[in-house]
Amino acid sequence: MGKNESIEALEHSDGVAALEQRLGVSRREFLQLCAAMATTMGLPKGADAAMAEAVASAKRPSVIWLHFQECTGCTESLLRAEHPTLEKLILDVISLDYHETLFAAAGHQAEAARKDAMKANKGKYLLVVEGAIPIKDKGIYCKVGGQTAVDMVKECAADAGAVVAIGSCASWGGMPSTGGNPTGASSAGEVLGKVIPNIPGCPPNPYNFLSTVVHYLTFGKLPDVDQLGRPKFAYSRLIHDNCERRAHFDAGRFAMEFGDVGHRKGYCLYKLGCKGPETYANCPTILFGDVGCASWPVGTGHPCIGCTEKGVGFSKPIHELAELKNIVPPLSFPRIFEDQGKGISFGSAAALAAIAGAAAGGSAMLARNLGAAHEAENKTAPKDKEGAES
Ligand code: FSX
Ligand code: SF4
Ligand code: F3S
Fold first, then answer.
1. d(CA 81, CA 89)
2. 34, 200, 238, 268: which could join 52 in a potential S-S bond, CB 3.0 to 4.6 Å?
């Protein structure tokens, strides 16, 4: 922990003033970002100041960034962030000593720079792996400088202070591992034979990466992770639980097809295949690209495809209904004009299910009552093409 307990006290410190010059960001903007990162990671009081001091001190960890089977979207999302401070901050916080996309050097020169950085920072450098690693047929499907990806990742990890997998490809195989996985595309953790911190997403959110790196820089260790290696601060909640459309899900208001009235009204995208109910990530709360509210897939009207989740993203058909992890919804909902006394509200059915103490029993009861409600509705209701409730 740094010597300053309060982040406000840092506003006039020399280190933060120098950083203002270096990055071209206002001190306040920088300190706000540190406070936001500390809060997002659920760190205790004073951690924001410690993080700000660590970044401002310019003691930058050496980073070696490897690219294998992927689209380079992870790197692009860091660099093409709408807000200029983000990529500046990332590149200032770390000393990027080897990165195939951003390097001016090429060929033997680039490989020599990697070896030099590994030697000079032995045991201390941060290894970032982007992209899956093909292991089939002795790894021949991906080679850099004549070395297979498998050998390169093992060689670089041997002397690293820490290894982080960025993106779904490096975290669990991602897109290259789908469709029968012809190259044996595997995660960095699988190749190294251990759980390593993973920042999945295709692409992942740059803030989650930045927060992870700043944590490493400040506290000398990576943040707490779940059993899949994902930092808990970013991947412990279902998207569904923080989604701005959740009230529509609970009320049974769904978009049934792209462009219909429900879709235009911002109803829930579950019936279009939204995988938010089975995907753990902080997309709805942290958003993308610093462009303001709704800048995440569901916010823009597209169902979540579960890109952070192994076995969901690029595996399940896009329009297949998501598995509901925390509640079992009915297949249909009562309309508001059902015969009095014949229907049952979702809320009261849920309460009954809770009293019965069994979700399965509850949903069976719900289905039975909803069946009765729809029978009543069919007798009395005019066909309403506008309503997206079903
Ligand atoms: Fe692409 Fe990265 Fe997707 Fe993969 O992100 S955005 S294919 S997760 O490894 O470059
Ligand atoms: Fe949001 Fe998707 Fe859940 Fe609907 S199903 S509330 S759109 S996350
Ligand atoms: Fe990916 Fe779904 Fe977030 S598609 S970016 S996990 S909303």
1. 11
2. 34
